[in-house]
Design brief:
The chain has a domain at 42-106: Flavin-binding protein dodecin (Dodecin subunit-like, 2-Layer Sandwich), CATH 3.30.1660. It starts with a helix and ends with a strand. It contains 2 helices and 4 strands. The radius of gyration is 22 Å and the shape is flat. The chain has a 4-stranded mixed sheet, covered by helices on one side. It is of the alpha+beta class. This is Biofilm peroxide resistance protein BsmA. Residues 52-107 form the YdgH/BhsA/McbA-like domain. Pfam families: YdgH_BhsA-like.
Amino acid sequence: MKHCLSLLQRGLSTLLLLSALSACSILQPTPMPPPAPTSKAQEVVRGQTATLTKIGNVSARVSGSPMDVEAAIRHKADAAGAHYYLILYVSDQIVPGRWSAEAILYR
């Protein structure tokens, strides 16, 4: 009986470990090509950045809405000559109604 319990615990431990490892693959984005460059910077997702060259980071803080801070990021990306940008976060946690965001710029 004690031996069967030990085997059951070992089997459950193995199953739990395999489940945790397979869940990690969900966090890995599927690589895909970015859209063709245009005259304005375009937002991309993480899976589209593998072939791009990072040229810097930008941040913005504005009063208004999440769309306002995203527009500020887009404007800064255009001003820096970036073809693409990846927004890392948008938040109003510090002061409600005052939004902050950070993004990585790419060519």
